[in-house]
């Protein structure tokens, strides 16, 4: 397995070399061209919130400018910059979720958006207090629930509905510390206001408000996104898939789906099965139509359809460099603006589809929720008709791909856990077996490992190293986002990976017939992790902060990840970040993040770039939690 990882790095090198030969530019060329990145920006002490600036203050209290023109000091400047990252991250997740809810609002028996999981629809509707949730007509109920969800973005009173899932102790903490999130849009707007020139300057207050805004993502937008996508597109189930660039098939028309919103991806999946379009592909000399996923849209599609994963964040350019991608179609988030230009070095057509993320440089076919299939069909036709334009001399698809098992929604995970109990005598359908395994010490604990790639660290190395260290120590890993795809490529999402585990985890994997690293989906699906952890806490009658569970984002880069870290800390889980956010310029703010916040939420941010050291810290953390629980 470790060989695969090594070979995989060889692929990266080979493709970067190919890019040079093809005259194509990659992120590494651009990183080199930037030379040294800005030290003030990196430390978070450059303020350009008003036009008297930009003001860059000194990181040192002993020399240089101590304050911006308005008098803001480094603590205020760092805090405000951090807060605005939380705002943007929360906005990205939640606004993409708003589109999912809109799709559900437009769902109908005979339209393209349907309700596939009526049981889940009724369950969530009842959870949210809709009357007669078990008897109302399906689509009437779906529309009512969608309208209620839209109110979660803008309701004038009250807090997020899903907070009630959490243990009471946690809900009390959120109330007491004033971090229970109200309407999502309100939380973002009010924090943007707070961080406007001449508003909040108290770093503690700004951090607290950042947590509350981020909470409206984790327990609001993201959780709605996960649950509603399941209702419309199906609850993910265990299924086999494959991952890495080798899933691109030179004999077929290849369509690379990249972005986040399942609405577009689902429609492309449907349209790609249209026999007329497949026939058209054959007429063009291809064997068929091959849809492959990249980043979170790839996660959504592999979880629900087994669509193969071409790669994670840092491979988006490499997929095009293979020369065998007919169309790269994208919606929102994590898409390099470099792609259209890169595509021009090959025959690839780049198509953006979202008015929120119109990307200049090639095609734009707008995705419209009222007529979603026409966009999807046009994308596929474009790909099919582009097949003949391929330059055979530029096609070079690396052969490597790994087998992968995906699909561990909360429901599916609980189903898998039932395999470890005696169905005649024990309760089934709950997280009790998981709690039992942890309490018995068979599993020492669990880690949610999530987030992106970042060229500041060797791609996938931190993800894989951390996961391997933890499973070796009997810590089960649940993964999402690009971390999940790193695990997939390294062969950690297959049953055989149990050989890399400690004795306890290995035994648990054998009994439940699961891999030691569980793919739980996309970034918004971190809400699945929150939900699972919450169920365990409730089942054991403890607070989330008492559980031997941690969060980690070893290679993150996005503002979304900053919001995620903040809601995970707010939920009571220590969160290990492998890349420094832009806060090192304020010792006081760093102290608040790594210590102060512990007093409010029972958890903190931990900064550690070395994954081996991070694993050691996590093990000590987990063992400490166990001791305190007396287990
Ligand atoms: Ni939403 S946010 S690079 S695709 S995990 Fe991947 Fe995940 Fe980060 Fe983006
Ligand atoms: Fe400078 Fe203050 Fe304006 Fe920031 S808000 S740019 S520190 S004057």
From TrEMBL:
Q: Which of this chain's residues are annotated to bind [4Fe-4S] cluster 2?
A: 47, 50, 55, 70
Indicate yes or no for the key word Metal-binding.
yes
Reactions it catalyzes: CO + 2 oxidized [2Fe-2S]-[ferredoxin] + H2O = 2 reduced [2Fe-2S]-[ferredoxin] + CO2 + 2 H(+)
State the name under which the record lists this protein: Carbon monoxide dehydrogenase
PANTHER family linked? CARBON MONOXIDE DEHYDROGENASE, HYDROXYLAMINE REDUCTASE
Say which species the protein is native to. Eubacterium callanderi
Cofactor dependence is on: [4Fe-4S] cluster
Residue positions binding [4Fe-4S] cluster 1: 38, 46
The record's Gene Ontology biological-process terms are: generation of precursor metabolites and energy; response to hydrogen peroxide
Question: Which residues bind [Ni-4Fe-4S] cluster per the record?
Answer: 260, 296, 334, 452, 482, 523
Q: What is its EC number?
A: 1.2.7.4
For this UniProt record, the keywords arranged alphabetically read as follows:
4Fe-4S, Iron, Iron-sulfur, Metal-binding, Nickel, Oxidoreductase
- One GO MF term, please? hydroxylamine reductase activity
Q: Could you tell me which NCBIfam families the record lists for this protein? A: CO_DH_cata
Looking at the record's lineage, which domain of life comes first? Bacteria
The family database entries (Gene3D superfamilies) matched by this protein are listed as: 1.20.1270.30, 3.40.50.2030
């Amino acid at each position: 397995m470790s060989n695969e990882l090594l070979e995989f790095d060889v692929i990266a090198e080979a493709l970067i070399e190919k890019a040079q030969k093809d005259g194509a530019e990659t992120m590494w060329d651009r990183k080199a061209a930037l030379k040294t990145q800005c030290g003030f920006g990196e430390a978070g002490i450059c303020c350009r919130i008003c036009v008297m600036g930009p003001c860059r203050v000194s990181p040192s209290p002993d020399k240089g400018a101590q304050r911006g023109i308005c008098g803001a000091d480094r603590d205020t400047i760092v805090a405000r910059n951090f807060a605005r990252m939380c705002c943007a991250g929360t906005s990205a997740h939640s606004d993409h979720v708003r589109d999912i809810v809109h799709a559900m609002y437009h769902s109908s028996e005979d339209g393209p958006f349907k309700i596939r999981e009526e049981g889940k629809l009724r369950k969530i509707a009842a959870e949210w207090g809709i009357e007669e949730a078990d008897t109302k007509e399906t689509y009437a109920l779906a529309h009512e629930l969608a309208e209620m969800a839209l109110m979660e973005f803008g309701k004038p009173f009250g807090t997020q509905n899903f907070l009630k899932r959490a243990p009471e102790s946690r809900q009390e903490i959120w109330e007491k510390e004033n971090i229970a999130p109200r309407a999502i849009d309100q939380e973002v707007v009010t924090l943007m206001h707070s961080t406007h020139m001449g508003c909040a300057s108290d770093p503690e207050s700004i951090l607290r408000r950042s947590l509350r805004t981020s909470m409206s993502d984790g327990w609001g937008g993201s959780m709605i996104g996960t649950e509603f996508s399941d209702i419309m597109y199906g609850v993910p189930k265990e299924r086999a898939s494959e991952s890495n660039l080798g899933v691109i098939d030179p004999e077929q028309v290849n369509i690379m789906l990249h972005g986040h919103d399942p609405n577009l991806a689902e429609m492309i999946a449907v349209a790609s099965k249209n026999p007329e379009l497949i026939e058209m592909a054959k007429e063009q000399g291809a064997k068929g139509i091959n849809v492959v996923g990249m980043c979170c849209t790839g996660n959504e599609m592999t979880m629900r359809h087994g669509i193969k994963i071409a790669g994670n964040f840092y491979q988006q350019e490499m997929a095009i460099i293979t020369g065998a991608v007919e169309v790269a179609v994208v919606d929102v988030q994590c898409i390099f603006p470099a792609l259209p230009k890169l595509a021009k070095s090959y025959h690839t057509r780049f198509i953006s589809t979202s008015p929120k993320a119109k990307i200049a440089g090639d095609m734009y076919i707008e995705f419209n929720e009222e007529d979603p299939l026409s966009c999807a069909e046009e994308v596929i036709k474009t790909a099919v008709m582009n097949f003949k334009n391929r330059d055979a001399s530029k096609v070079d698809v690396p052969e490597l791909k790994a087998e992968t098992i995906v699909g561990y929604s909360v429901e599916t995970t609980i189903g898998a856990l039932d395999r470890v109990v005696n169905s005649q005598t024990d309760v089934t359908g709950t997280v009790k077996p998981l709690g039992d395994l942890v309490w018995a010490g068979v599993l020492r604990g669990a880690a949610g490992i999530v987030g992106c790639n970042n060229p500041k660290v060797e791609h996938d190395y931190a993800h894989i190293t951390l996961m391997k260290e933890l499973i070796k120590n009997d810590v089960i890993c649940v993964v999402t986002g690009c971390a999940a795809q790193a695990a997939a490529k390294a062969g950690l999402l297959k049953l055989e990976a149990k050989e890399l585990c400690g004795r306890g985890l290995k035994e648990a994997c054998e009994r439940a017939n699961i891999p030691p690293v569980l793919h739980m989906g996309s970034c918004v699906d971190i809400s699945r992790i929150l939900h699972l952890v919450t169920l365990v806490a409730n089942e054991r009658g403890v607070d989330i902060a008492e559980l031997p569970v941690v969060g980690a984002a070893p290679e993150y880069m996005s503002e979304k990840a900053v919001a995620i870290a903040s809601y995970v800390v707010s939920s009571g889980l220590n969160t290990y970040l492998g890349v420094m956010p832009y806060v090192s310029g304020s010792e006081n703010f760093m102290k608040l993040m790594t210590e102060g916040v512990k007093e409010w939420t029972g958890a903190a941010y931990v900064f550690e770039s070395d994954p081996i050291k991070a694993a050691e810290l996590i093990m000590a953390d987990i063992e400490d939690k166990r001791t305190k629980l007396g287990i």
